[in-house]
Design a protein that fits this description.
The chain has 7 helices and no strands. 65% of the residues lie in helices and 0% in strands. By secondary structure, the protein is mainly alpha-helical.
């Protein structure tokens, strides 16, 4: 799916191997909306000057790189294309599984809160390590 859908090209270019600095506009922090499309609307509304500033910080000396030109020339259109790419990825890779994933995460919150409240932070963190170890096995 990842390499077969041309709608994902903005993601391929920006997250290519060897590019390790990631701007806040590329991976905006979720703000807890009900639907992913609300988060993508925020990406589409990113301030153009912020985009240009972040390109300079995250890709220094690369302003002439073809994959960055859209973000410098027309940040609104580039962010819209990036949001479309995230939407395509969401629809192809996550959307079908999201109800189960969300339920599992929501079910985990009270368990963690109860562990913290009754056994303290050490038990909470020890449990997290135990879960990670079990998942890796």
């Amino acid at each position: 799916m990842w390499r077969e859908d041309d709608r994902l090209r903005p993601l391929w270019d920006l997250f290519a191997e060897g590019r390790y600095t990631v701007s806040d506009f590329l991976l905006p922090r979720p703000f807890g909306t009900v639907h992913v499309h609300e988060e993508l609307a925020a990406l589409r509304a990113t301030d153009p000057e912020f985009v240009r500033d972040q390109v300079a910080v995250c890709y220094p000396g690369m302003a002439d790189a073809p994959f960055l030109r859209p973000y410098l020339k027309d940040p609104e259109a580039a962010c819209a294309a990036l949001a479309d790419a995230y939407a395509a990825y969401w629809e192809g890779a996550v959307e079908a599984y999201w109800p189960t994933m969300r339920r599992l995460v929501e079910d985990e919150v009270p368990v963690r809160a109860r562990t913290f409240a009754t056994e303290g932070v050490d038990a909470l963190l020890a449990g997290e390590g135990a879960l990670a170890a079990a998942a890796a096995a």
